[in-house]
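Quality-control log, excerpt.
Job 1 of 2 completed; input and output follow.
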Amino acid sequence: MSAPFAPVSRDGWPLNDTIGRPNTRVVKRSEGKSAVRAAAYQARACLDDQRTGERFDYSWRDDLEAVEIRGWDGDMVSLWNAAERAENRKNSQTARTSTLPLPADLSDEGRAALVRRYSKWLNDEYGIAVMSAIHRPDGYKRDPETGAVDHGNRNWHAHLIETTRRVETGADGTQRLGEKARELSDHSKGKNGEVPVKENMRKRRDVWCEMMNDALETEQIPYRVDFSSYAEQVEEGRRAPQEPTQHLGPEHHRAAKGTTTRKKTENQRRRKRNSVHARAVQSVLEGAMPIGAYAASAEEQTEREIEEFFRKIRWSMRRVNARQKAGALPRERSAQTTSRQTPKTEEQKMENRRRAAITRRANERRKSLREKSDDQNR
């Protein structure tokens, strides 16, 4: 259950919680990964790894929207082979990848400009080369006559692949990869106990959030995103306190349907406690439960902390209500109303079955093409 009040961003706009947080990972040679392979997958291209002699071909995929390289004068083949050549250890980190969910409500030009602006910021801030690739969602269709767009599952997203080393220009004017950008990879603590990589990752997250909200404001889309943690949102009075659930991981999702594990059971208990907690917050806001009674049920918080929490909630909600009265925001549905799913018609069921069949056939074709490509590589 979500919070009993409409979560709002720091500037008072409603939040879109369906936009996922950015995800960053490292390409590690010790795990059998390659920067050339990651670049070929993201760019939906066919690239040769000059270090190993392997060829990676993902050109059969048809969901690529745009590819751009920032901070490097050559093409992607020269860039990512240079990234591989710059590392000589068997456990080297050759690249860094990021997945950035994009709002489907933005225009094509708005999404491209947003990703381009963020790539430029990374290049200017850390001196690294960045390749960006925007992928269309599954089920995306565009009518060539009317221009009408079906966004499918609305999963617009961008992949970034970055060099772990800074780009340097030699005396002869040629570019090469120089020193490591340690502030993005060194997890050792500094003199004051801080971990630089954590601070930089949080900085990257906040800059991406700010740029995305600027793009939404430019196109007058009436919501904002916020990638701050639940703990930060609770501290600012923008969300009811919640216990975090545990990440299950792929092994749990691969388990047979109906299989119960310890983590799944614990997550169900935490979600139930979060529901009870959220309903209690709503009761206090409506005056049905005194704050003292709520404080007694919260084991780790004092009554003063509870009062401060509700003061922040009321402050944030006053801002939202003021904007609604001014006509700047659409009115949110009451927290007491429960959304009931509309029964699907027979036509909708047939359409769902048709889409499932198309997806199944596409997956079978991709599997056969992948197996054929693997046989050719052997």
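Job 2 of 2 completed; input and output follow.
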Amino acid sequence: MRIDLASAPGHQERPNEDWVSAAIPASGGGVLVVLDGVTPPRGEDGCVHGVPWFAARLGGRLTELSGSRRDMPLDRILAESVRATAEAHHDTCDLSHPRTPQATVVLVRWDEAYVEHLVLSDSVLLLQAPGGEVTAVLDDRLDRIPREVLGSVAATDALRNAEGGFFTAAADPAVAARAVTGRTPRGQVRAVAALTDGASRWTDTFGEGDWADCLTVLRKEGAQGLIGRVRAIESDPARPSGRYKRHDDASAVYAEL
């Protein structure tokens, strides 16, 4: 088994709001957890802690439960982790605020029988079959919303964790039911990768290659190599910026099973 991961902030003067972790439990198999903390627009968000605190709390709980509670399906693990994280700051913060700290989620867990997955919001999961074919597991609800709508803070707030909008892990455990989930027989998966949108833009924004090409870069150059390629493109003044900002926190994890 080989696991490689890397994470880089979008700006050195701002904390990285991503979370990436991997675990190899004593019981066998493995776990990958990738979160992309949602940077709120300037203004009040009802929380005294901030997104990095939230991502660390949620990511830590997801990693613990995914590795220790194999009897719990991933959607229940997400629900319990969101509940526990909300409990940790409900006395000090307004968790009903639409911009309360929140994050995208990718969970992967495998044992000798199956590879399980969960994706919520716009981070990306890649599954590679033994023959080399790559399947992207996506939650595309955010991509269905017109960019001009997302340019409005009020309109975006109205669509957060709402019917007809998009869903992220915030303070309501019920959001776990909105995640894209599934499982694949272990023998049908050779490698997996998870990317926050700061890293997946190599494919989905800049079009430097398809998802199979992206996985090849991860295999040959590692997670840091892919992030380095993204940063080089972003630094080229002749290239357009990413969807919402030129530089974003970028995280990637690659595992050969």
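Post-run check on job 2. The two ends are 5 Å apart (CA to CA).
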